[in-house]
Design a protein that fits this description.
single chain, about 180 residues
């Protein structure tokens, strides 16, 4: 186990963006699998859906959150409770609503929705998921920004997001045939 931790830390130092993108992809794919196996109670597993969630984590979520946390650290700072509160405010007022919209549109595109159906998807899901975001993420981010070093913040968020991604996967799969 110690060797895995050392390898992870070395990869994080040498390739921070790539390492955090890969971990986001793995955890988003795992969140989809949890949704399919334990919430959807699917008789068959949709591996294409899982690969789509993995791709979203690898190419969008991991790089976006890593870049965002670097921006926050650069312009707001890295230490102190007032810094953490400012970061949470920026994160939840700017990043969360925008990222959620990108996520829902991307999932809709993966589900083969056209522009009209994407608009319906956003109308039906966005507000409710954003409200639920505000029930979970401000407290997580307050702890994250207060206590966790910058290079581990994406890992913390993606670990908590395992449950969040399970919820988003389940929620967005409800209307996949509409």
């Amino acid at each position: 186990m110690r060797n895995i931790k050392r390898l992870y830390q070395r990869m994080l130092r040498k390739h921070p963006m790539g390492t955090q993108a890969v971990q986001a992809g793995i955890l988003m794919g795992l969140g989809d699998q949890i949704a399919q196996n334990f919430i959807d109670n699917s008789k068959t597993i949709d591996f294409v859906r899982t690969m789509q969630f993995t791709g979203i984590g690898l190419f969008i979520s991991g790089p976006a959150t890593t870049t965002w946390y670097r921006i926050l650290d650069k312009y707001i700072g890295s230490k102190g409770h007032s810094v953490a509160i400012k970061k949470v405010a920026c994160d939840q007022l700017f990043f969360a609503p925008t990222f959620l919209a990108v996520l829902l549109v991307t999932i809709g595109i993966c589900q083969g929705k056209d522009i009209e159906r994407l608009k319906i998807k956003m109308t039906n899901e966005y507000s409710d998921i954003l409200r639920n975001n505000y029930k979970v993420w401000p407290m997580v981010q307050l702890v994250n920004f207060s206590l966790v070093p910058l290079h581990y913040q994406t890992l913390v968020v993606q670990s908590v997001a395992l449950l969040w991604n399970t919820y988003v996967s389940y929620r967005t799969s409800l209307d996949k045939h509409n």
